[in-house]
Amino acid sequence: MLDYEHFVRAMDTSLCPEQSFDLIKRDLIVAERPAVLYFIDGFIKDEIFEKMLEFLFKQTPDTLAGITSMQQFQLDRMPYVEVDVVNTVSAAVTAVLSGPAVLVIQGIDGALCIDTRSYPVRAVEEPQKDRSLRGSRDGFVETLIFNTALIRRRIRTEKLRMEYVQIGNRTKLDIAISYIDGLADPKALQLLRDRFKKLKLNGISMTQQAVAEALVPSKFLNPFPKFKFTERPDYASACILDGKIAVVLDNSPSVMI
Question: From the centroid of its chain, how far is CA 248?
Fold first, then answer.
């Protein structure tokens, strides 16, 4: 069982909330126990967190009696849908920096990630470079979950897969590998997974172009593109239905085919 004081000290050492105004450490008392909530201001939804805090403040020692793990707390006491349990400091720090809030309660082993992310996002509008005379007028944006939803809206099959990958030592870029199970080439899929695992990158500032160059490094002059890029959800969906693999990157409105 992780010691509460050690866990909080390690989180403070890694995140340094006193040095960043937008990284908030909120001390709480939950059921007469010390608790800490870590989150980044600007990523959370205020209305949801008001209800979450109201729920936490209503807890009593009797309601938490017998609960010793966050897994049990999540199953028995947490009314919110998008929650996950982490058991290491490094996983909790990565979760905070990715957007979710992390809750730690004394006497309960582990930490609870509460995903209420609300990224700044522009409207889902038609791409400037990829216009169409007929068909839909929406386009990909810079938010990963919005882009995967645009694909899901068009491909309503249980065979559609969205595999989550995180790359980059510092930026920890979120990536979704989208394909239809049974149509995509298994060897190409495994090759892509292996290359993502082997990538050694500190940061990815140019998103899709940097990832493309890292996946297939240039060894000779080649005038042909290594990947297709599209900002249209209908075209990306059509490619996936043809058995191709789409790589959706966070912070990029272009999907790699």
Answer: 12
Q: What is the SS3 assignment for 118?
A: coil
| Residue entry with tokens 């890694």 | 14
Structure tokens at 113: 């990630």
Nearest to 87 by CA among 70, 107, 101, 68: 70
Token digits of residue 116: 């209420």
3 state SS of 231: coil
Handedness of CA 15, 17, 21, 26 (dihedral sign): positive
Distance CA 175, CA 197 (A): 12
State how far the Cα of 173 lies from the Cα of 207, in Å rounded to an integer: 8
| CA dist list (Å): 69 to 10, 85, 86 | 19, 9, 11
pTM of full prediction above 0.85:
no
| Cβ neighbours of 168 (radius 10 Å) | 19
Euclidean distance between CA atoms 145 and 119, whole angstroms: 10
8 A C-beta contact, residue 249 and residue 208: yes
- In SS3 terms, 21-41 reads as CCEEEEEEEECCEEEEEEEEC
Rounded-to-10 torsion of CA 92, 98, 99, 105: 0
Range with the poorest average pLDDT among 105-109, 113-117, 166-170, 218-222: 218-222
Handedness of CA 141, 145, 149, 151 (dihedral sign): positive
Mean pLDDT across 233-256: 92
